[in-house]
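Support request, please re-run this one:
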Amino acid sequence: MKDLVKKAGLEHGFEIASAATSTEEIGNPVYPPARRKLAQHGIGCEGKRARQLCREDYREYDLLVGMDRANLRNMQRICGGDPEGKLSLLLDYTNRPGEVADPWYTGDFDQTWEDVLEGCQGLLAAVKGNKKE
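Re-run finished. Output below.
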């Protein structure tokens, strides 16, 4: 998402962060196969470390976007619900709502890349459509 926003020349209008909904990877760098897939597309992730979503993130950010229904359930639990309607799934911003293919289980980083790219493109279009210029 950061790469798309930067390429659109909009990086000064967005604050984009990533957070886990579980604790398994907290503190770990980006998973090596994911890092390689990002590098194939000219996207670096050096120095990135997993952190966990916290309740304060709900107040801090306008949107919180999960990859799958398990993420969404965990986000609702961590945030204490979703009274402002800020929680969604990434593929909700596409013509094929559903879950992003999880490469941890599938090993298919190409499909995950396609899902995430399509979702981020749709999310950016939706956000741009709601922003006052």
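Strands lie at 64-66, 87-89. The radius of gyration is 15 Å.
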